[in-house]
């Protein structure tokens, strides 16, 4: 894996993507061959939901950003070709979601992401 510099991928780029009103800005941060593993109540750690490539990841993001909810990047730490970030979301009806992600970068793009999420029930 190559290393990414802060100028190629930084917290402001991620913030604009996460907190935007559409999936496109966030999807632009992913490499064509990216892989996203989602772990939550429905996809347990031994059998996570795995999305491969920008098309599959894009479909998930389109679904998420079509919902009546807001997104906020809470924290982000970048060190070399690795990053970790926290995202909070709020549905219009008051349901909250919290997601924690670990990512690997290549040439300033996300190539691997593991996201653990939980929501109010």
Care to describe what's here?
The protein has helices spanning 11-19, 23-27, 53-65, and strands spanning 30-39, 49-52, 69-79, 82-91, 96-106, 109-119. Strands 2-1-6-5-4-3 form a 6-stranded mixed sheet, with helices on one face. The model is unreliable at 1-7 (pLDDT under 50). The termini are far apart. By secondary structure, it is an alpha+beta fold. Helices cover 22% and strands 47% of the residues.
Q: What is the gist of this entry?
A:
The protein has three helices and six strands; from the N terminus they run H-H-E-E-H-E-E-E-E. The protein has helices at 11-19, 23-27, 53-65, and strands at residues 30-39, 49-52, 69-79, 82-91, 96-106, 109-119.
Keywords:
single chain, alpha+beta, 3 helices, 47% strand, disordered N terminus
| Annotation field: number of helices | 3
> Which percent range describes the beta-strand content?
over 45%
Give me the count of strands. 6
Q: Shape, please?
A: globular
Strands side by side in the biggest sheet: 2-1-6-5-4-3
Q: Would you list the SSEs in sequence order as H and E?
A: HHEEHEEEE
Radius of gyration: 14 Å
Largest sheet descriptor = 6 strands, mixed
Helix content: 10-25%
Give the SSE map.
Blueprint lengths: L10 H9 L3 H5 L2 E10 L9 E4 H13 L3 E11 L2 E10 L4 E11 L2 E11 L2
Parallel strand pairs: 1-6
Antiparallel strand pairs: 1-2, 3-4, 4-5, 5-6
């Amino acid at each position: 894996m190559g290393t990414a510099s802060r100028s190629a991928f930084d917290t402001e780029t991620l913030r604009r993507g996460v907190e935007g009103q559409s999936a496109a800005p966030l999807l632009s941060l992913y490499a064509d061959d990216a892989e996203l593993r989602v772990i939550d109540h429905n996809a347990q750690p031994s059998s996570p939901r795995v999305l491969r490539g920008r098309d599959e990841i894009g479909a998930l993001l389109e679904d998420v950003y079509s919902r009546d909810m807001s997104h906020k990047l809470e924290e982000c730490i970048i060190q070399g070709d690795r990053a970790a970030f926290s995202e909070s979301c709020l549905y219009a009806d008051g349901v909250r979601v919290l997601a924690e992600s670990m990512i690997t970068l290549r040439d300033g793009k996300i190539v691997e992401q593991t996201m653990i999420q939980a929501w109010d029930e």
